[in-house]
Design goal:
mainly beta; seven-stranded mixed sheet; globular
Length: 122
Amino acid sequence: QVQLVESGGGLVQAGGSLRLSCAASGRTFSNYVIGWFRQAPGKEREFVAYISRSGGRTVYANSVKGRFTISRDNAKNAVWLQMNSLKPEDTAVYYCAASLWLDAAADKYNYWGQGTQVTVSS
C-alpha cells in the first residue's frame, strides 16, 4: 500500500512554470507506476503523464507533450511534474496516483493523493 501527498500548486501567469511534487509513504513505492491526472471544473478527470517503476519510460498526453516533464526518485519516494509554458487551459486540480499497470486509464490506479490546485491566469 502507498499513500500519496501532492504539493507545489498555485497561481501562475500564462507562459510561466510550476513544479508539482508527489511524496509517497511506504516501502513498496518502487513497485508502482506513478501517474499524474487533472480535473478542471465541470470536466472529467483526464490523464496527464505516467512514469514507469524504474523511471525509464514516460508517457504524456498530447495536450502537455513538450511542455511537461515527469520524473521520479525511488530513493526519495518522490515524483515530480515540471510544467512549463503553462496555458489557462492547464488550470485544474492535479492528482498523483499509483498503479501496478503501465496504463493511462484512471481506473487502473488504486491509490490517489488529495490533489493540488493549479491556476493559470491569462
